[in-house]
Structures are given as structure tokens and as C-alpha cells.
Specification:
Order of helices and strands: HHHEEEEEEEEEEEEEEHHHH
Main location: other
Number of helices: 7
Structural class: alpha+beta
Protein name: Flagellar hook-associated protein FlgL
Mean pLDDT: 84
Pfam families: Flagellin_C, Flagellin_N
Strand content: 15-25%
Largest sheet: 5 strands, antiparallel
Strand order of the largest sheet: 6-13-8-9-10
Shape: rod-shaped
Helix content: 40-55%
Keywords: Bacterial flagellum, Cell projection, Cilium, Flagellum, Secreted
InterPro entries: Flagell_FlgL (IPR013384), Flagellin (IPR001492), Flagellin_C (IPR046358), Flagellin_N (IPR001029)
């Protein structure tokens, strides 16, 4: 191939060289101005693609941080609400223990009724707590309306049983606030496994103050009853009412029957019965309603007073189970708050690592860029000087 040397060719080469140097300097100026090595994807296609992926990961971590903030707010409010409920249960326990004094005046009992009714109202308000954004804490996933309402004097749950799982870190999830059904409803009675109650037709002064398993695992879950034939003599009846055995009870001693331990104070009359069965469940509001009802009972006779004491003792056991439920619920919430702290540490570590990697990919080495800029500037000046000298040259001068 023949290369033709001409004035036009030399002119075009010089112009192309200057334009290339100017373009390079312009690109360096953009890099220096933005502090970025990757101004456009063509600067490093592989690094640019990887950087986009890292940007998405960082954006995902930021979203998880927002999720964590929302859940932490709700769990914190749940903790505050449950702490208040626990205090209310403590006060109910104090009032119930005080109410077990048979010599208590009617006016004192009425004062207790008023206080328990106020506590019940406050408890319902706490059960309908919101998170400050209009969402209800204890409604499960149906948190757009109050989870609890009162219908014909009874509290009804309108939420669902679901509990949200929220992603707060890479493959890390925490549970949102507990649904109200797990906190205020379905609370076990008795000791949580076995329960007992005095028959409403009892005529003596026997009061069932404690019922629990004896620790031997002999109780098979079948209901039975104890029927007194005298103040210190009893018959053990199975669920069908058949006599299984007989025995005697010494005042102050526990009765241990079928793996269940019973303690009965007072003097049962012949024919009085005390029923034992597997623990059922009831909501905390029904427990308070029962306590209020028992405090309003007529206690004009010793038998009626004993009936009230039996109901109060039953209520005391149920309130104890409700208090335990609050403790368990707070513990569950605390575990989720701890998981949030761990997730925050993990997000922070990942963010620092990712930003460091992005910096290596994108950020400009100013010393190197400025050196290149000075080098290109010098080269451009040389090209411009050469072009200026070439403009004064011509091949005709050589031919002459």
C-alpha cells in the first residue's frame, strides 16, 4: 500500500491529535470535578456493572433499616403497653387478696369494684393501642381498625391470629407485635394445666385456695370431684359420678388425689363438692368481670361468704396466669428487639464493606488523575505548537 504524503494529510493528523488530547483532558476534568473514576459505563464496563449491583444491595440495606425502625417502634410500644398491663395485674392481685378478707365492709368492696372497673377500661384502651401511624399494635395483620370492641358488655376480638415477619437484614427476619389474641385471650386457668372450683350448691364454709399438679405426673387429665360426707370425710368421684375411693382430711393438710394437690380451708358441709378438671382458657376481661361479679355478691351468710371466697380464689389464680402471659409476651418482644440490634450490627458491617468496595471501583485517585491531566495538557500544548509551525510549511518549499 502506498502512503501519500501531502500538506492536507499532515494538517488532518495534527488536528486529530489535538482533538484527541482535548477529549482526553475533558474526560479527566469530568473525573476530577465529580471525584468519580467511572463517569460513564464505557470507562470500565465490568466495574460499572458490578457497581450497579452493589448499589442495589445498599438500597436494599437502607430499606431494611427503615423496616427495622418501624418494627422497633412497634415493639417498643408493645413493651410499654405490656408493662402497664403487668402493673394493672399486680394491682388486681392486691385488690383480690385484700377482698378475701371475710370481714371486709360492703363499702370497701364497692370501692374495689369501682377501681377494677376503671382498670378494665384502661386495659381495653391499651389493647387498642396504635403505633402512632394509625396502625393498631395488637390486631395482627388486620391492624387498620381497633382489634377489640365491647358488645353487650363482653369484649370481642376483631383482629386476626397472624404475626408479620419483617426483613431487617440479609435473610434476617423479626416478628412484629403479637396479635391481641395471644396476649389478652385464651389465657389458661388454674395452674395452667389443672383447675378446680367449688360447686355452687355448697352449703359449708370450705374454700378451695389452691389446686395444682403434685409433680408426680400421675394426673391423666380426666376430671374428678371430691364430695364431702362430713367435715373431715370425703369420697373421690370419677367423671361419671361413681365413687372411686374414700378418705379423710385433716384441717390444714393438702389432699393429693390422682396426681392433683388440693388445699381446702374452712369446714365443708356434708354434700359439698369440689370439681377438678383440665384447665380451660378465658380472656382477661372475663376474669375481671368475674371478679367484679363476685365482689357484688350477697355475703349475708357464712355459706354465701364462702362462695364469694371461692370465686375470688379462682379469680386470683386466673389473674396469676394472666400476669405470666404478660411476662411471656414481654420476653418474646424482648427477643425480637435483641434480634433487631444484631441485625443493625450486621447491616452496618455490610454497608461499610460494600461502600469500601464501591469506593475502590468508582472513586478517583486524584494524584494519578491530576498527573495524567498535566501530562495531557503538556502534550496538547506541544501538538498545538507543532501545528502552528506546520501551518508555515509547504512541500513547495522543498521542491524549490
Amino acid at each position: 500500500m502506498n502512503n501519500r504524503i501531502s500538506t492536507g494529510m499532515m494538517f488532518n493528523q495534527s488536528v486529530s491529535l489535538m482533538m484527541a488530547k482535548q477529549a482526553r483532558m475533558s474526560h479527566l476534568e469530568q473525573q476530577i470535578a465529580t471525584g468519580r473514576r467511572l463517569v460513564t459505563a464505557k470507562d470500565d464496563p465490568v466495574a460499572s456493572g458490578a457497581a450497579v449491583g452493589l448499589d442495589r444491595t445498599l438500597a436494599s440495606l437502607e430499606r431494611m433499616e427503615l423496616n427495622a425502625g418501624n418494627v422497633q417502634n412497634r415493639l417498643g410500644l408493645q413493651e410499654n403497653a405490656l408493662a402497664q398491663v403487668g402493673d394493672m395485674m399486680g394491682r388486681i392481685t392486691e385488690l383480690t387478696v385484700y377482698a378475701n378478707n371475710p370481714a371486709l365492709a360492703a363499702s370497701d368492696k364497692q370501692s374495689m369494684v369501682t377501681e377494677i372497673e376503671a382498670i378494665r377500661g384502661n386495659l381495653l384502651a391499651l389493647a387498642n393501642s396504635t403505633d402512632g401511624t394509625g396502625r393498631y399494635l395488637f390486631g395482627g395483620t388486620a391492624d387498620d381498625s381497633p382489634p377489640f370492641s365491647q358488645v353487650d358488655g363482653k369484649v370481642v376480638y376483631n383482629g386476626d391470629q397472624n404475626q408479620r415477619q419483617v426483613e431487617v437484614g440479609p435473610d434476617t427476619y423479626v416478628l412484629d407485635a403479637l396479635p391481641g389474641s395471644e396476649i389478652f385471650l385464651r389465657i389458661a386457668t388454674g395452674d395452667g394445666h389443672v383447675d378446680g372450683a367449688a360447686n355452687t350448691a355448697n352449703t359449708g364454709t370450705g374454700v378451695l385456695t389452691n389446686v395444682t399438679r403434685d409433680g408426680s405426673d400421675n394426673w391423666n387429665g380426666q376430671a374428678f370431684s371430691v364430695r364431702f360426707t362430713a367435715a373431715d370425710q370425703y369420697e373421690l368421684l370419677d367423671a361419671g359420678g361413681a365413687v372411686v375411693s374414700t378418705g379423710s382430711m385433716k384441717a390444714g393438710d393438702d389432699l393429693v388425689l390422682n396426681g392433683v394437690r388440693l388445699h381446702i380451708d374452712g369446714v365443708p358441709a356434708a354434700g359439698d363438692r369440689f370439681e377438678v378438671s383440665a384447665a380451660t382458657s378465658r380472656d382477661i376481661f372475663s376474669t375481671l368481670d368475674s371478679l367484679i361479679g363476685s365482689l357484688k355478691m350477697d355475703t349475708g351468710t357464712a355459706a354465701k361468704s364462702a362462695a364469694q371466697q371461692n370465686l375470688l380464689q379462682s379469680g386470683l389464680r386466673d389473674v396469676a396466669r394472666a400476669s405470666e402471659r404478660m411476662i411471656d409476651s414481654r420476653a418474646a418482644g424482648g427477643a425480637q428487639l435483641k434480634a433487631l440490634d444484631n441485625a443493625a450490627d450486621m447491616r452496618e458491617s455490610n454497608t461499610v464493606t460494600l461502600k469500601g468496595t464501591l469506593s475502590q471501583m468508582r472513586d478517583l485517585d486524584y494524584a494519578d488523575a491530576i498527573s495524567q491531566y498535566q501530562l495531557e495538557s503538556t502534550a496538547l500544548q506541544a501538538a498545538q505548537t507543532l501545528f502552528s509551525q506546520m501551518q508555515q510549511m509547504s512541500l513547495f518549499n522543498v521542491i524549490r
